[in-house]
Amino acid sequence: MWRPKLCFYQRLSVSLVLGFLVILSVFVLASSRLQDSMKDESEQMLHLDLASHLVSDNPLLKTGVYDYDALGNLFHTLMILGPNFEFYFLDTQGNIKTYSAKKGEVIKKSIDLAPILSLLEPNPTLPVRGDDPKSENKHKIFSAAPVYNGELLQGYLYVIIGGARYDSIVENLKRSEGVQTFAMIIVAATLFLLFALLLLFRFFTAPLKILSDDMDTFRASGFDLDGSGVKLRPWRNESRNEVQRLGFSFNDMLNHIDEQMKKLKQTDNERRILLADLSHDLRTPLANLQGYIETLSLKGSSINEDERQRFMDICEKNLFNLKRLIDQIFELAYLEGGHVTLKKESFMLAELLHDVAAKFTMNAQNKGITLNVNAAAQNGYVHADIGKLERVLTNLIENAIRHTPENGHIDINVVEADKYLTIEVKDSGVGISERELNHIFKARYQASNSKEDSAIHAGLGLAICQKLMALLDSKLEVSSELGKGTSFRFSLTQITP
């Protein structure tokens, strides 16, 4: 992946310098042109009537031009008195008839009359620039006036304002020591301003560089906060500085990612342990099945009918345990993967409790256990998934029967409180120690005082129940005391049928 060679501050600095130089160049150019335009406008306005005064005051021009040599001498004399001006006499076609310059300096033979006619109009827009006879493409401000012989237009007096000598003097002044010193001061001030701006940019971008370096370090460490060496800096969320708020958000993100990574590692470790334990649990019924089926296959007819039936019963029991274990594994996998859909409907809670309890009445009686349903809210309705709720109740009652000794009792209670119905499955069994209560909802965890029976228990039931209750927007809670029994509770929102 291509990455820029310059850091953000360097790119910002280069952009600033280039932008500053471009703006400065445009400003200097525009300022120079504006200054020249204002100077030309003011000078042309000041000398606008110069040509007309010369025409009206000079006898050679006032009565018409007949002697071009005499007029040339006059122009030369005028130029000596006013070296800022150059004088030209043009005929009606714009051809130059005589002038004040030295021979060889004038390279043009004619002048475009359009600017002259524009200047002679009432209220002309200044500055108006005309052709410079000493240059092929230069244009200069001028003063002009028509020259008449009676009523006949004989030509035009064309006076260049700021002639070649004036331009030469201006150029020399620009190269003078004072002007150069002033230019150096301007350049030094500009460079100082640029340097100050670069330092200011450095100050503003320093926190962003620190934040970027921390991000790179954190990413290079594999998003491990403890192993990255990233120090959580005291960024301020309430600051008006966007970088401070960004840094504060980055700290939150670091903590959140670190917490998620730890949870993922813990979950991965638990999955490995769970997979190893489940593999062992699956291997036991499979080994039993294999052994008895091989025995039936090898001995064949030598086995009597009673023994054959006993072998078949054992195989059937192992198949039942195997299927139950696989079903629980798949159910837990679907719940953790978020692939379970709910089919909610409204129903009377008491009826479901009595139906589920009825399935375990015979089993409870065989163990000498009393199973009671105490529903204070007989007509209470809830909106939930009946199948998922029945699955939870079935697991809780099965566990209660398994851990309750003979002559014990199991109570299924429903308590109405505000808009909720709280369901409790309470037994008088062996109970669970306080230090183990926080672990019983973990997959494969079995309390140290669990009762063993002929069935295989993978320790997934309560983990499945907890996830099912989360899908039903509730939470399965437990309280217990060793030797006195255990109570599981959850609450559902009561609705009006």
TrEMBL record:
Chain segments annotated as transmembrane: 12-30, 182-204
Chief place where the protein resides: membrane
Domain HAMP: 202-262
Domain of life: Bacteria
Keywords: Kinase, Membrane, Phosphoprotein, Transferase, Transmembrane, Transmembrane helix, Two-component regulatory system
EC number: 2.7.13.3
Recorded catalytic activity of this chain's protein: ATP + protein L-histidine = ADP + protein N-phospho-L-histidine
Gene3D superfamilies linked to this entry: 1.10.287.130, 6.10.340.10, Histidine kinase-like ATPase, C-terminal domain
PROSITE patterns with a match to the protein in the record: HAMP (PS50885), HIS_KIN (PS50109)
Alphabetical list of InterPro entries matching this protein: HAMP_dom, HATPase_C_sf, HATPase_dom, His_kinase_dom, HisK_dim/P_dom, HisK_dim/P_sf, Sensor_HK_Regulatory, Sig_transdc_His_kin-like_C
Histidine kinase domain span: 277-496
Record's subcellular location: Membrane
GO CC annotation terms, alphabetical: plasma membrane
One Pfam family cited in the UniProt record for this chain: HATPase_c
Molecular function as annotated in GO: phosphorelay sensor kinase activity
Record-given protein name: histidine kinase
